[in-house]
From TrEMBL:
Residues 40-179, 204-345 form the SIS domain. The keyword Repeat applies. It catalyses: D-fructose 6-phosphate + L-glutamine = D-glucosamine 6-phosphate + L-glutamate. It is an enzyme of class 2 (transferase). Homodimer. This is Glutamine--fructose-6-phosphate aminotransferase [isomerizing]. GO terms for biological process: carbohydrate metabolic process; fructose 6-phosphate metabolic process; protein N-linked glycosylation; UDP-N-acetylglucosamine metabolic process. Its EC number is 2.6.1.16. Keywords: Aminotransferase, Cytoplasm, Glutamine amidotransferase, Repeat, Transferase.
Length: 355
């Protein structure tokens, strides 16, 4: 059941402290600061030269985030929309691991990409929520994200669990001794809980509902979150929403910005990125757009943002987990105010089993 929540989506959003805790349980040793992903074979780790991620929708955005983390760790990594993977001849020389990220493990596009990769001789890894799923069975190995059952069509806790799992894989590949990261992982469930307890996303949704469109902007690790925030918004509210890298706005999308198009800006990521994103925020403000800043430094957006959705400070890899929770709540409350059938949006299915 929904355990007292109006929708499975809200219940699953509130299950995220537990979900992110489960994602690392037994995999991260706080004592000696090491990470062991038992399902991630040592052989695979030793022979790994490059990683290609495939996924769809929300899971694709998780791959964008995962690939960026691996690149920062010195591992060449690319993210592909699964349905596009087979349209290119992507070289899969020795040492290529193709990682399929899929909550259900049954998404036809993702399975097709993994089969292509298997056929081309690549090593394949499934990062999935469902034990015994097709992806888990057909890949050389599987890592489970352990989010627990997700009923709502909109993916929420599974995305948080994917983020944490991919961050843990990135750390494990880098020999797993990143103490600041491990400490932040330990604190993450409580921080997600804090966001849930204190979020004012419902009030912000009330202020903004009825807008012409919603734009989401972010840089670096926050770019996939901007895309995910927009997907969640369009999926459950049926309102127009788009995500952009913050710097791209001025290359075209800015023409769409008016006083009826709120811009949700992810303002995190160190001084340099923050400063640049804030200058993009000023550009939309000059066009009269209501600005929502999602930030771990509310003082830094003082006078620039009309609304602030605050997140606690954490390791830079994990800030996107926290900011995303605020965007989930913003989409949820907007859809709620519009009286949408949140758990079962029109035209969509939980598991998409056709290509
Ligand atoms: O089960 P999967 O993770 O493979 O599903 C992929 C997408 O269909 C899924 O994430 C979809 O985009 C969600 N409904 C988004 O909320």
């Amino acid at each position: 059941g929904k355990s007292g929540y109006d929708h499975f989506m809200l219940k699953e959003i509130y299950e995220q402290p537990q979900a992110v805790r489960q994602a690392t349980r037994g995999r991260v040793s706080e004592l000696d600061g090491t990470i062991e992903l038992t399902a991630f074979p040592t052989a695979m780790r030793n022979e790994l030269d490059r990683v290609q991620f495939v996924g769809c929708g929300t899971s694709y955005y998780a791959t964008r985030y995962g690939a960026a983390l691996l690149r920062e760790r010195g591992v060449p990594a690319q993210a592909f929309v699964a349905s596009e993977y087979g349209t290119e001849r992507v070289p899969t020389e020795d040492g290529t691991v193709v990682v399929g990220v899929t909550q259900s493990g049954e998404t036809a596009d993702t399975l097709a990409a993994l089969r292509d990769a298997n056929g081309a001789g690549a090593t394949t890894l499934a990062v999935t929520n469902v034990v015994g799923s097709s992806a888990a069975r057909e890949c050389d190995a599987a890592v489970y994200v352990r989010a627990g059952p997700e009923i709502s069509v909109a993916a929420t806790k599974s995305f948080a669990s994917q983020q944490v799992t991919l961050a843990t894989i990135a750390s494990a590949l880098a020999d797993g001794t990143d103490r600041p990261f491990l400490e932040s992982i330990r604190d993450l469930p409580a921080q997600v809980q804090r966001v849930l307890d204190r979020s004012n996303a419902r009030d912000v949704a009330e202020e903004l509902v009825g807008a012409d469109a919603y734009f989401f902007i972010g840089r670096g690790y926050q770019h996939p979150v901007a895309l995910e925030g927009a997907l969640k918004m369009k999926e459950i509210t049926y309102e127009h929403a788009e995500g952009f890298p913050a710097g791209e706005l001025k290359h075209g999308p800015l023409a769409l910005v008016t006083d009826r198009t709120p811009v949700v800006a992810l303002v995190t990521g160190g001084d340099d990125l923050v400063e640049k994103t804030l200058s993009n925020v000023r550009e939309v403000e000059a066009r009269g757009a209501p600005v929502v800043a999602v930030t771990d430094d509310p003082d830094g957006v003082d006078g620039v943002a009309d609304h602030v959705l605050e997140v606690p400070e954490t390791h830079r890899y994990l800030v996107p987990v926290l900011t995303n929770v605020q965007l989930q709540l913003l989409a949820y409350w907007t859809a709620n105010l519009l009286d949408r059938p949140i758990d079962k949006p029109r035209n969509l299915a939980k598991s998409v089993t056709v290509e």
